UniProtKB/TrEMBL annotation:
Listed GO biological process terms: coenzyme A biosynthetic process; pantothenate biosynthetic process
GO CC annotation terms, alphabetical: cytoplasm
UniProt main location, coarse: cytoplasm
Similarity annotation: Belongs to the PanB family.
GO molecular function annotations of the record: 3-methyl-2-oxobutanoate hydroxymethyltransferase activity; magnesium ion binding
Assigned EC number: 2.1.2.11
Record's keyword annotation contains Cytoplasm: yes
Protein name (record): 3-methyl-2-oxobutanoate hydroxymethyltransferase
Catalytic activity: (6R)-5,10-methylene-5,6,7,8-tetrahydrofolate + 3-methyl-2-oxobutanoate + H2O = 2-dehydropantoate + (6S)-5,6,7,8-tetrahydrofolate
Stated role: Catalyzes the reversible reaction in which hydroxymethyl group from 5,10-methylenetetrahydrofolate is transferred onto alpha-ketoisovalerate to form ketopantoate.
Length: 270
C-alpha cells in the first residue's frame, strides 16, 4: 500500500503518474497499468454524472465513488476530492467531511481546491492525520467567480499569488499540489520553489507529475480540454458494441445456443 510519503520521495527522481477514476473497473485498469495515484475527482460531475459543472456533486456522490475505487485498488494511492461547499465554510463540517472520505470511503488523502481560506484548514486536517493534496491555478468550483474555465496565473501578479499560496499550503503540511491550467514557466518556477511534489494538468512538462481526467484519456466524451490527450476511442467502441448487440437481438442472432440452456428432465408446466 503506497503512502503519501512514497509520493513525496518519488518526486524529482521519476515522474509521478495520476489519473482520475470514478468506478471499480476503471480504477482496476489504472492500477493494472501501475500508476502512482488515482483521483476520485469532482470532475465526476461532468465526466460521468451528466452535469455541466462540478458544483452539484455531493459528499454522498464522492463517498460512494471513492468506495468503489478503493475496493478495486491496493497498490495505488487513492485521493478523494472534496466537493463544492463540503469544506471551507466551517471547520467542523470540513473536518467531518474529510474524515468521511478516509473512514467511510477508504481514501488515503483528500484534495482541496485552495485559496487563502484553506491554509489553516490544511494545517488542521494534516494535524489530525488527514493528508491533503492542495489544488491551485484553475479551480473549477470557482467557475461562477472566474467567469469561465480560463487559464490562470498569466500575469506577474496572479502568478506570484499562486506561488505565495503554494508555499503557504506546503508550509501548512500539504503533501503535494495540483497546478491546473497555468503557464508552463509558472508551474516550473513553483515546482522549483516548493519542497512538495507538483502534479500538473495543463501546466506544462516541468511539474513533478501529471494528472488527467480518465474519460478524456479514454476518449469517452464529446469534448475535452485542449491540454488533454486522447489515447483511446471508447465512445466509438461503446457505440458500435451496443449497436451490434441491438442488431443481434433484432435479427434473432442473440442469444445463440451457447448463451442459453435447456432443463432436459423438466415436465411440461401445464
Ligand atoms: O476533479 C478533478 O478531476 C480534478 C483534476 C482535474 C485535478 O480536480
Ligand atoms: Na476537482
Amino acid at each position: 500500500m503506497p503512502t503519501v510519503q512514497d509520493i513525496r520521495r518519488k518526486a524529482g527522481d521519476e515522474p509521478i503518474t495520476m489519473l482520475t477514476a470514478y468506478d471499480a473497473p476503471t480504477a482496476a485498469a489504472v492500477e493494472a497499468a501501475g500508476l502512482d495515484m488515482v483521483l476520485v475527482g469532482d470532475s465526476m460531475g461532468n465526466a460521468v454524472m451528466g452535469y455541466d459543472s462540478t458544483l452539484p456533486v455531493t459528499m454522498d456522490d464522492v463517498v460512494s465513488r471513492t468506495g468503489a475505487v478503493a475496493r478495486a485498488t491496493e497498490d495505488t494511492l487513492v485521493v478523494a476530492d472534496m466537493p463544492f461547499l463540503s469544506f471551507g465554510a466551517s471547520e467542523e463540517a470540513s473536518v467531518e467531511n474529510a474524515g468521511r472520505l478516509l473512514k467511510d470511503a477508504g481514501a488515503q488523502a483528500v484534495k482541496l481546491e485552495c485559496g487563502e481560506h484553506t491554509v489553516e484548514l490544511t494545517d488542521t486536517l494534516t494535524s489530525l492525520g488527514i493528508p491533503v493534496m492542495a489544488h491551485l491555478g484553475l479551480t473549477p468550483q470557482h467557475v461562477n467567480q472566474l467567469g469561465g474555465y480560463t487559464r490562470q496565473g498569466t500575469t506577474e501578479d496572479t502568478a506570484s499569488e499562486i506561488l505565495r499560496l503554494a508555499e503557504a499550503h506546503a508550509d501548512a503540511g500539504a503533501f503535494s499540489l495540483v497546478l491546473e491550467h497555468v503557464p508552463a514557466n509558472v508551474a516550473a518556477q513553483i515546482t522549483d520553489a516548493i519542497d512538495i511534489p507538483t502534479i500538473g494538468i495543463g501546466a506544462g512538462p516541468d511539474t513533478d507529475g501529471q494528472v488527467l481526467v480518465v474519460t478524456d484519456v479514454l476518449g469517452m466524451t464529446d469534448w475535452s480540454p485542449p491540454f488533454a490527450k486522447q489515447y483511446g476511442d471508447l465512445k466509438a467502441e461503446m457505440e458500435s458494441a451496443i449497436a451490434e448487440y441491438k442488431q443481434d437481438v433484432e435479427n434473432g442472432d442473440f442469444p445463440a445456443s451457447e448463451h442459453s440452456h435447456t432443463a432436459d428432465d423438466l415436465d411440461d408446466l401445464y
